Amino acid sequence: VVALGVGVGHYLDHVPEEMIAHARQLRTPIFEAPLSVPFRRVVQYVYDALGSSDLHHLRRALAVQSRLVDLVCRECSALDLITSLSEMLSIPVALFDHRGTVVALGDQSARAKRVAACLREAYQNVDGSVGPLGFIEVDEARFYYRQVTIYGVVERVLAALLPKASAPGVVELALEFAGKLVGIDLLRRREQLLSHRRRRDLLLDDFLEGRMSSAETADRMGEEGLDLSQPWRLVMCEAQGQAVAKGANLALNRETVAFRTKLLDTADELLDECGLALLSRLRGNALDIIVNGDYGDEESTRKLLTALHSRLETAVAMPVAIGCSTASSGSESATRQDHQAAEALQHARDGSGSQIVLYEELARRFHLLEDQSSEMLEALYERLIAPLVRNDERHRTSLELTLRVWLDQCLSTHRASEALFVHRNTLGKRLRRIEEIVDVHLDRVDDVVDLNLALRAGDLLLKSPVSGESGRASLS
């Protein structure tokens, strides 16, 4: 505070007009005080006025913070939080996600929407670099921003418009505090979502492994909105991308988590839009989904899976393979549906046909494996295929692939040699070597059928969860 005080009543009765005129020219405040008013009283009054103003701002900031904390404690939505903040500060406030999409707007008026568009545009123009003070000056206004960062990643941006002439103190404190509350709310909701998904993962795992009684299955599935007395199918989706190897850096792991979360969220969102009850779990780059609804025919199922396939490929920007079991009801067929979906997924991922395969579309000759136990499939595979795989690993050969291609080419030596890019004599030597290793004769129908079924059993064991940890590892 700068002012000239003149004590009157001793040398002067009043401040002279010449002093007043000169003070006006200097733009300096001037006041007169009688001898009965000490200057220290004037100074004390100024101090009290300034302190009162600061105390007012502090009380207002605390009131805003208290109100926002109450909203968070009541688990109100981000919209309620931003609306209350906008009302208390009497300024437009908006909340964006990291892509610039409006998550919440303090006022739904046309003006507030225009302001939100300006706030977003200004933030994107500077690529989020708002400086240490957190604002951008545009014409006669200041755009204030507070970035909400979780685990080093900007998840939300809180933005507000304030005229330059306004006192920003309370607004800055309120925005800073509100940003922290938004971050806390995001973390809380994320933990709730993760807890819910873990519970669903365990439920789906128990169901497919047959660990629950029929009554317990009905109760627990009912809690998730599924009615297994109605038709249901097991759908397996797999993104055809490279999995993250062990020891990958933290940033890459974050990208992988975001990618897999997007895969799960996209599938859940589409099926919810279709009004279908579902139970899903994430395994690496793959999804297992129980879809429950009155749609047992192949045509409606393929239409649904086509929409799901399109949505997933758009979301993750890579090819997606989908395998689907037949329609079933009740809980007794869970293991069979698991086998079916795994086999359909194997056909979808091999690249030789459609990326969407329904089990009922597969050749009937392979369906006799669907009710077999894991032990039986393992024994068949170990007897006829595992020796070839071990020989390939030991001697760097490709006998298992040779057998698979030869069977796929309907036992045609000519077509198989062309598919493998080898001479017919080379193919013949490989086939004779296969006969020696697993003690079969490829000119006997029974042996050829056994080999074909053993290959299919191996596909199921290696690609479906029923095979234990090795199956899970291959899917992830």
Structure description:
- The structure is a single chain.
- This protein is 55% helix and 16% strand.
- A 5-stranded antiparallel beta sheet has the order 4-3-7-6-5, with helices on both faces. It has a 5-stranded mixed beta sheet with strand order 9-10-8-11-12.
- The chain has 16 helices and 12 strands.
- Mean pLDDT is 80; it is low at 243-252 and 463-476.
Observed structural traits:
alpha+beta, 5-stranded antiparallel sheet, elongated
Topology (elements, then pairings):
Elements lengths: L3 E5 L8 H10 L3 E5 L4 H35 L4 H12 L3 E5 L4 E4 L4 H16 L9 E4 L2 E10 L2 E11 L5 H40 L5 H10 L8 E8 L10 H24 L3 E7 L2 E7 L5 H19 L3 E5 L9 H16 L6 E3 L15 H11 L1 H10 L3 H10 L4 H8 L3 H15 L6 H19 L5 H7 L1
Parallel strand pairs: 1-2, 11-12
Antiparallel strand pairs: 3-4, 3-7, 5-6, 6-7, 8-10, 8-11, 9-10
Helix pairs in contact: 2-3, 2-5, 3-5, 7-8, 9-15, 10-15, 12-13, 12-14, 13-14
